[in-house]
Amino acid sequence: MVTPALATPLTDNRARTAQHYVMSEAPKRRKNIHPLRDAALAGIITFVTSAVGLSIIYVKAREAQLSAVRTEMLQLARTMAAEVDGDLHKTIVSPAQAGSPEHERLIAPLVRMHRAARDVWYVYTGIYRDGRIYWVLDTAYHYRVPGNDTPVDPIMMLYPAREPLYERAFREGLEFTDFEPRLDDGHYYLSAAVPIRDSSGAVVAMLGLDMVLDALAERMAVVQRAFVFALVVVLLMSIVAGVVAHRLRQFAAALVSKLRKARANAEHNAAAAENASRAKAQFLAMMSHEIRTPMNGILGVADLLRTMAPNREQKRLLDILSSSGGSLLRIINDILDFSKMEADRLELQASPFELRSLVDALEHLLAPSARTRNVSFSIDVDPALPAGVEGDHQRLTQVLLNLGTNAVKFTDHGEVRLTLRAGSAPAGMARISFSLSDTGIGMDEDAMARLFTPFTQFADSQHHRGGGTGLGLVIARKLVGLMGGQIEVESTPGKGSTFSFTIELPIAQVSSGTTTVKALRLDSLQVLVAEDNPINQTVVAAMLRQLGHVSTLVTQGRAALEALALSDFDLVLMDCNMPVMDGLEATRQLRRGMAGVRNPNIPVIALTANAMDGDREACLAAGMDDFLAKPVTLAALGKAIERARRSEPEERVVGGAG
Prior knowledge:
The chain is of the alpha/beta class. The protein has helices at 2-24, 30-82, 86-89, 101-116, 164-172, 214-243, 248-307, 312-333, 338-342, 355-372, 393-409, 445-449, 472-482, 517-520, 534-546, 557-566, 583-591, 615-622, 634-646, and strands at residues 120-129, 132-138, 157-158, 176-177, 182-184, 187-197, 203-212, 351-354, 376-381, 388-391, 415-423, 429-438, 488-492, 496-506, 526-530, 550-554, 571-575, 604-608, 626-629.
C-alpha cells in the first residue's frame, strides 16, 4: 500500500520535469541547458531508484514478519491440537453439553495455553458437516483477552461466512493460515487451523486460533515512517544535486552508501523479528525435551513400583524416583539458562556422588523400556574406577539417559550396552570413558553429518521413530564439552551405533546414606488436596499415603471452600491454577472466612508449577503459608508438612483481604 501512495508525486514530478524540457529546448542555448538537464535526470533516476529499492525492502520486511507469525501460529496450533482428546471431542454435539464434564475436560488445556499465549485473541474448534462449518469449543467460556467482549459461540453454532479456502481446509483436514491479515472489529487478524485426530488417526475436527496483529502493525508503521523519511531525504538530495551539478557524484556516492546501510539494517531487523516470533515455539520444544528426559526415569520407576510387592527393593526404587524428580526440578529451574549454556557461561554444579548409584539409576531407568522391546540392556563397569567422584551428577545423568533412550528407541533386537572404563589420570583424578553401544538400525554418513545440528531429527521412516525437538544430542554434546570431553560417534547402517566420550573428575569420598520414607513419616493428618490434574492428584495422594496421611481430592478452588465448610481438615495443599476459581482467590476467601469455612487459619501450602521470581511472594500475599514448586519430591512434601505443623496460626501470613 505504500508504493502506490508514493507513485503520484513521483509521476507529477516527472511530468513537470518533462514540460520544463520542452519549454526550455533552444538550440542556441544548448550548452547552458545540458548540465541542468543532466543533473535533473540524475536526480530523477536517483529518486526513482531509491523509491523502488525502499519499497522492495519494505515489502520483503513485511512478508518476512508475516511469514514468521504464520509459522509461529501453526506451531502453537499444533501444540494446542495435541492436547485435545479427539475421541472425546466427537461426543460434543449439542449446545446443552456446555459446561458438562466432557466439555470442561476438553476446554481446560486450551484455556491454560490460551492464557499463556501472547496476542492470541480467539481459540476454538470446529467441524465440517453437511457442507458447512460449525463451531464446537470456544475458550471464551473461561478466558477472554482483556478488551475482548465478543459473545461466546455456543456449541454447534453455524459459521455464516463462506470462504472457499477455509472451508476446504475444514473439509479435507488440511493445515491453513491466512495469506494476508484481515481487518475486523478495529483489529488486524491472522487465522490458523490444524486438524484434530482421534486415537485411530482420523481427522475429527479442526482447531483454530486468531492472532491479533496490532503489535506487528505498529512495528511496520514505524518502518513505513522510516522509509517515507528516507524517501524525503533522497528527494532533497536529488534537488541539491540538480542545483549543485558539480557535486552530483559526491551526493550520489553518499546516497548509495546510506541506501546500502538502510537495506542491511532492514534485513537484519527482519531476521531478528523472525527469530523473535519463533522464540516461543523453540522454547516450548526445548522445554518439552528437557522435561522428557528425567520424566522417562520417573515413569520407569513408577511402573516397577506398581508391579512389586513391598520389600527392601522399594526403598532403593523410591530413592531413584526421588533422584529423578530432583533432576526434573533442576531442569525446569534451569530452562532459562539455555542461552547461557550456548554462550559458554553456564557453570556446572559439582558435588560428590557414587558411580555405582549413577549406573544403578540408569539401569533402573532404561532396562524396563528395553525389556518391553525385547532388547537386552547391560552395564559393564571397570572395577578399577573409584567408588566416588565429584561432578555434576544431574547433568551427567541427563547426557547418558539421553544417549541411552535414543539407543533403546532405535534398537529392535540385540542389546544396548553401557561401558565405563578407567584411564590413566593425574593423582587425585579419575579418567572415565563412557561408551554406549547398540545393535540398532545405525546411520549413514549423511545422517551422521546432521546429527548435532539443532532442530534436526534422525527419523526412522520405516518404523516412524522420529520426533522430538532435535535438541537432545545438541544439548548432550554441549554438556559433555562443559565437562571437558567430546562426544564421538561410530555407526554402520543395519549394525548399530556407538556414542562415547571421556572426562576427568576429581576422586571424592562419598557415603551411601539415604533418607527413608520412615524418617519422613509424621502423625496422620487429614489433608485436603485441591488439584485439577488427574495425574498430579494420583502422585500427591500416593505421597501422602507414604507419609501416613489421609487425603481428600477436589478439582477447583470453589470445591475446596465447600469441602472446608463441610469437614474438618488439618492441612490444605492448594494448586494455584485451576478452573472456576484458582488457588490464590480460594485462599483469599478462606482467610476472610467466606463460604462458611470452619477454620480460616488452616495451614495452606501452595502446590504449583509456577516457580518464577515473584510467584512465591504472590502466594504468600494471598494468605498461603508455604510454597512447593512442581515437581514435588516426597522429602520436600514431608518437610513442608512438618513446617506447617510447627507453625502457630498467628505466625502465618494472611493477605489478600483487599
